[in-house]
């Protein structure tokens, strides 16, 4: 089967303090992710996980290497051509509050991507927003609120609804539960598992917590100093006692979550 995402020999450099010694954040990274699959990028702080994610999202053009998505080389596209592909590859970030505008009501935050993409339908749009809130297990009445009136877990569900509004095929999840209270992490992870099963989504999952990776991902690529030092089945990772999420096999719906 052809992978949905194929990353080849990716390199990302940042200008260092000394111009002659740039920081090599990502050093020849290659991996693939198929539809319906979760690949975790794990590794210590500073190993290059977020830089890899930013390069896959083309938020930052890699210095070299290729990003292929659904048979097209994204790294070869100019910005207008990329705009047409971007809805299919959506990010979910770590900070649930920081990724939402504090001024926008929740329903407008979810509608915003559709408006920006010129896909907002004033007749069908409100029902679509209500459907997305329901999909992520939130009461439609929360649509009237602003982010500061929601819990962290609710906000992260809104971030997921906002990503789903674009009908994506790949979500780049950059530490999506790390900022959440341990008691609500499992609910959000289970929601992501349910959505993947239902919609066939592919996930590139950035996470430093081995226990979460082990239970949530199918495969893991471990980064160190910008290089992949190991790829394995996520189940083969040595379990870590803290921060465990429920295993994929016990995934339940995230419906009507209030946390
Ligand atoms: N904007 C930047 N300018 C200069 N160096 C950077 C920049 N962003 C990241 N780096 C460096 O690149 C390397 C990889 O950082 P990156 O944030 O990708 O790692 P990470 O594994 O995601 O870390 P964390 O888990 O702490 O977020 C680190 O050495 C970091 O200091």
Automatic annotation (TrEMBL):
Task: Kindly give the PROSITE patterns that the UniProt entry links to this protein.
Answer: ABC_TRANSPORTER_1, ABC_TRANSPORTER_2
* Coiled-coil segments on the chain, per record: none
Composition bias (Low complexity) maps to 243-259
Q: Which SUPFAM superfamilies match?
A: P-loop containing nucleoside triphosphate hydrolases
Q: Name one GO biological process term.
A: transmembrane transport
Keyword check for Nucleotide-binding: yes
A molecular function GO annotation? ATP hydrolysis activity
State one Pfam family annotation: ABC_tran
Q: According to the lineage, what is the superkingdom?
A: Bacteria
Limits of the ABC transporter domain: 5-250
Q: Which UniProt keywords apply?
A: ATP-binding, Nucleotide-binding, Transport
Query: Region entry Disordered: which residue ranges?
Result: 234-259
Q: Which InterPro entries match?
A: AAA+_ATPase, ABC_transp_ATP-bind, ABC_transporter-like_ATP-bd, ABC_transporter-like_CS, P-loop_NTPase
Q: Which family does it belong to?
A: Belongs to the ABC transporter superfamily.
This protein's name: ABC transporter ATP-binding protein
Q: Which organism is it from?
A: Streptomyces alkaliterrae
């Amino acid at each position: 089967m052809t992978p949905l995402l194929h990353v080849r020999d990716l390199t990302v450099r940042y200008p260092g303090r000394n111009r002659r010694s740039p920081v090599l954040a990502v050093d020849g990274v290659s991996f693939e992710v198929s539809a319906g699959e979760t690949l975790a990028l794990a590794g210590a702080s500073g190993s290059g996980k977020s830089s890899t994610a930013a390069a896959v999202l083309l938020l930052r053009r890699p210095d070299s290497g290729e990003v292929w998505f659904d048979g097209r080389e994204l790294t070869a596209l100019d910005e207008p051509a990329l705009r047409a592909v971007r809805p299919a590859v959506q990010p979910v970030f770590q900070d649930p509050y920081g990724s939402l505008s504090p001024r926008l009501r929740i329903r407008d935050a979810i509608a915003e991507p559709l408006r920006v993409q010129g896909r907002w339908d004033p007749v069908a749009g409100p029902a679509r927003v209500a459907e997305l809130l329901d999909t992520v297990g939130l009461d439609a009445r929360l649509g009237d609120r602003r982010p500061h009136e929601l819990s962290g877990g609710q906000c992260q569900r809104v971030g997921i609804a906002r990503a789903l509004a674009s009908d994506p095929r790949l979500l780049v999840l950059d530490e999506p539960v790390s900022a959440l209270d341990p008691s609500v992490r499992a609910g959000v992870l289970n929601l992501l598992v349910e959505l993947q099963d239902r919609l066939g989504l592919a996930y590139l999952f950035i996470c430093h917590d081995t226990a979460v990776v082990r239970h949530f991902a199918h495969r893991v690529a471990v980064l160190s100093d910008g290089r992949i030092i190991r790829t394995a089945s996520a189940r083969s990772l040595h379990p870590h006692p803290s921060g465990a999420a429920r295993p994929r096999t016990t995934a339940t719906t995230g419906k009507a979550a209030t946390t």
